[in-house]
Amino acid sequence: MSDVMDEGLWCERVFRDHQLSVMLPVGGTMAVYFFNSDGLIPRRYNARIIRTDEGRDLAWLRAQDVYEPVTCLRFFDPPYASGWNVVALAYTTLDGSSATILEPGTYSGQITNEPDEVSLTCSCTSKQGASGSPLILPRIDRVVGVLAGASHASVYAVPVTHIREFLIEWLGGDEDLNEVRTAGLVMLVAKGQ
Fold first, then answer.
1. What is the DSSP letter of 189?
2. Does a structural domain hold residue 167?
3. Model-level pTM?
4. Which residues are CB-contacts of 33 (< 8 A; sequence separation ≥ 6)?
5. Cβ partners under 8 Å of residue 140, min gap 6
6. Structural domain boundaries, residue 34
7. How many domains, the chain?
8. Pfam families, from UniProt (predicted)?
9. Rounded Cα gap, residues 88 and 156, in angstroms
10. Does residue 124 share a domain with residue 83?
11. Is residue 112 one of the residues assigned to a domain?
């Protein structure tokens, strides 16, 4: 599989935390924002909810009518480690309301737990409305998780391992799929839609 294909699929298929789509049924639509290729302007698109998993706090969305190049991120498949630097990349509303005026934000911190725990926690802060945003490893620009919530001192994310489990289960649970990289699993699911 080529990186170009992997990138294109990630651009049109979005993982969000389940809480944001719980009020809409599978098949419903919601707004999502992508950066254009220069990374400066977020564009609004409608996305259809394809599948949800409340237990893993994930939703799979498919953006509709994405015609221009957008910034794409890749997954980090190996286990992460406590102490690694991470950055949450988020666009939030200016006042935390549901208004469509967006404000960019990057929130730096470190991973504070080991990969055998249920969620990935980190010491960065965030604003309300950042749920569903990618949590990346800044030195290699790879997604290590999807923001799902925050407390006063920590941000919680759904780790890539849960995204992999979600995709493998969706594809029928074949053990051979454990050897496929996350981007490859995304492609297999996308082809089946």
1. H
2. no
3. 0.78
4. 42, 43, 44, 45, 91, 102
5. 76
6. 3-72+182-191
7. 2
8. Trypsin_2 (PF13365)
9. 11
10. yes
11. yes
